[in-house]
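Predict the 3D structure for this chain.
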Amino acid sequence: MNDIAAQTVKVMLVDDHAVVRRGIRAYFEVLDDIDVVEEASDGQDALNKLGTMAAYDSLPDVVLLDLMMPRMDGAVATERIIGSHSGVRVVVLTSFGEMPRVHAALAAGASGYLLKSAGPDEVAAAIRAAARDEVFLDPAVARRLTQEMVAPPTGLSALTDREKVVLRLVATGQSNKAIAKELVISERTARTHVSNVLRKLQLNSRTQAALVAVREGLVPPQK
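Done. Predicted structure below.
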């Protein structure tokens, strides 16, 4: 972004490795349009600091976070950040490119997904895209998502790890409200997960989903 008049994007860095945060901050310091305003060591720390920042009306525009962190992982943190602070965008920067992790992050509301092998320019581009309410994906991740669209997986392999958990809970007769409480997510997110499970398995009802779960050995048959 070469437009000098462009508004500065305020960023929070969230990673449990201080050296990673330090490296990213050092790069952003040479850019005129990106300003690191806060750091956090994990998802819970990020939520705590965002709560304080919200009280002073000083929230960042974008949170750049890792997925694998202690106390609270990035996917859960992403959902809670967006749920609590609707104007904040989240970009994931991680070493893990497995598709279930990608799906979980995007389902949680992430505006970007980058691998730590990405160059500094890509990270900056993802931050800027998120600030514009756009989605930016690592090229390798985007290719795999495209391949899934062309030749989507079938059966249980089509489900993310979270959706398999949801399927198990559906099979035990749990309501969306109960699923939300069990997984510490919003009821709306639980409803979305259930809908995605039914769509991916090409089913029409929760009863059919329960039968599939039993057939596949996810839960024991009801006596």
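Residues 155-215 form a domain with the Arc Repressor Mutant, subunit A fold (CATH 1.10.10.10).
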